[in-house]
Every structure is written in structure tokens, then in C-alpha cells.
Design brief:
13 helices, 8-stranded parallel β-sheet
Amino acid sequence: MDGEMIWKLDRPQPALPSSYFWTWDHSANWMLDDPGVVNFGCFNKYLKRPETYVEDYRRLTDFAAGLGVKGIVIWGFLRDSHGGIEAAKRVADYASSKGVAIMPGVGTTWYGGIYYEGDHPYNLPTFLRDNPDAHMIDKEGNSRGDRGACPSSPVFLDWLQEAMQWLFSEFAIGGADLENGDFVVCHDERCREHKNSWPKDDPDVFRLQAMSYEPALKCIEEQLSDKLVPWGTYTSFVPGTGQLGTYMGCERPVLVDRVPRDSIGQWTLTEMVRQEPLPLTAYLDEGAPEAMFDNPHWPVGLRPPSSRSVGYCHQATQWWDAVPRYEQAVSTIKEACLRAHRSGLEGVAIHGEVSSRHVPSALNYLAFSHFTHWPEDTLREFGRKTLGQVLGEEDEGEAFAEILAHWNAGTLSEAQKKDASTRVEELIRHVSAGEGLERHRFWNWLSVMCEGNLER
């Protein structure tokens, strides 16, 4: 059928094989008619109907499989409010049957633990309620409540490893996404003693990450070569400047030499890519324009220190004001994929929360699929190989890419505007006859943008 072409694209083996979508359950909205839909925030309650959880991820799984995307991170994978273990198994089993790796978000010392929300033994607040001596301690010597656990607590470490083994044995998952709570630091007496045995120039945030990531990963070490298990650093891999988004002053975090080699360091590319993206016309006929590399935040030749690495971009999400949720970010996605590939990363992650019925998001996803498979390609090649499958013909895909590029660059000609509007007028007649709805959706969006002369 006409509408299925976007989801079943012909793809070779990817150049960045460990690429995946990152999502929160509460704001991954692929089923749009649920009254509990939200499109913002973190730590949110799940307000949608329980059955919507399974349907949202069924649709996203089909979409990822059609694009050749390896996996889907789900923060909130396990919640009582959307069905707990039974619903999570349905989501994981379905994805496994489609060759897509479900990667539950796992908070090691923060962010809910293994069972994100509910009265369950592997929920972190539940564990801390029953084990108050395992609470994380702040600078003033006070407990940080039921959100954070002290990574030096022996009872906590036993609990963490037991919970990780349960997660990987109970569900047909293809990995997990480990985070410890951004830049949290514990001031418990045991943690202060631990610091005395740690290299002095290694930042505390990396030390705290190592204290929970290492045991969490080692207890599933034999599975890591077959699973996708990144651990979040929350920083770039640019060493030594001491600024947010870098290693904060050290040349090589001890963390990378403590975790198992088959685990994957997740490095933040958000501030490494150009903060003012190149206009899409720069990529129209050049797959690697020189201007892309004129960027002090990502020195040419720099490689991450972890044995395996992926990159994570926040552009086109609710967490990045410069390119917010619902905006197209094709230029940044192209740049991130090419530079990641040349820097030796094996994957890139972007958010996958917005339904592909929204055309700018669909373009982001299509670009992500294309440039994780062909990172060196030009925008014209994106148009012919990928948009051509969506729009039915290579020439039409190339025409769309060219007009898109000039609209983005603010160099649109009157002839190009007319071309887009003429195509829409013709497609209206096709749609009335029951054909071409997918093509009309894309061209109508582009024509509206061109007529408004909106530069994005």
C-alpha cells in the first residue's frame, strides 16, 4: 500500500550499526488520540491509558524495523500504571520478533532503578524505603531521600546486580541504557573513603559513575557482546578543557578502563556538533563539506576513549531550545552521523518520540536512517535513495531534497516555490481518487513552508 513505503526501506548493512531511538514512555506519542498525551518533561507520571503503552511501542517498533534502526530505549519500561511486567513483556517480545532491541532505561543510583515506578523490589525508591542506610548523602550530610542510592553501600550493590540479572533473564530485551543520575555525587563516609583510593585528577562524577556502572555491567558481562548496553557519561569526548560538555579537566576518565570492554560508552554529541547548523545547500552536492570540520568543539581526528562508543544528540527535542521538539534537524543529523562514523563510533542515538505523521519529524527519522547507513552521502543521494522510496521515484525524491535545501538556506527561487505548489495541486486530484496520500503529505508541508518563506 502507498502509506507503507516509508516504513519498509531497502537498506544495506549500516555503517553505524548500533544506532537507536531514545524515548520516555510518557512522551513517546505514536498513538495520538489518547487524552493523556504529553510532549514535555522528565520524571512525569504516565497519564495515558495502559493499553496505549503497548500500542505506542508496537508502532514505533514497526517504524524502527522499516528504517533499519537497531533499537529503542524506553525510560519507564516498567511501571505499574501501564501494566507492569505483563505489558513490558508484550513490548519486548513484539520488538524481538521484529529484530528490534528494546533497551530499558536503568537508573543505577538514581532515576528509579530497574523497575521505574511501582511498589516492586527492584524499584529504587522501594529499595531505599526498606534500606535507609543506603541513601545517598548530600554535602551537608543529609539524606537525598528516596531518589538516590549510595554506590558504596554493599547492600545496594548486591541489590543492583540481582536486579540487573533479573531484568536480562525475565524479558526478551536486546540491551539496556544505563544512567546514574547526571552529575550526582555522594558524600557518604564510605564514598569519601573510596575517593582516597581513586586517582586524584579524575572528576568525582566519573568516579561515581564507575562505582555503579562497573558492577551493573559485570554481572551481565557474558551477554554484552550480543546486546546493546550503553552507559551515559553526560559529556562529550573532548578532553581537558574543564567546561560543561567535556571531561571537566581530565585527559582520560578511569571509568573507561573499569567497565567491561563490550559495554558501550554513550557520549553526548549535542554540543560537539556545530551550534549553527550548516544550511542544507552545503550538503546538496558535497557529502563532507570543509565547513563541517571548522568546529573547535569537535577536533578532526579525535576519537572517544571507550573501547566501544555511541553518540547521543538532543536536537529536535524538548530539551534543546536551539532546535526544539517538532523542528527538522536534517543538517545536524547528517553532520553527527558522518563525524561519528569518522571518529570511530559505532552508532548514534536521536529521540524517537514524535509520530512520523508529523513531517519535520519524519524527515529527521528518514535522514537518520539514511546517514547511519550512508554517512558520506550528499543530500541529493538522500533524496534519490531514501525520499525516492517515500515519494515513489528517485527523481521526485531528489527534487524534494533540492527544494527542501533551498528553503532551509533561504535561497528559494520563485520557480521552486511554483514547482512545490504545482505538485500539491496535482496530488490533490490523486488523493481524491484514493492514491498518493503519502506524497501529498510531504509536498503539502514543504509547499506551505515555501509559501511562508519560513527559514529552518
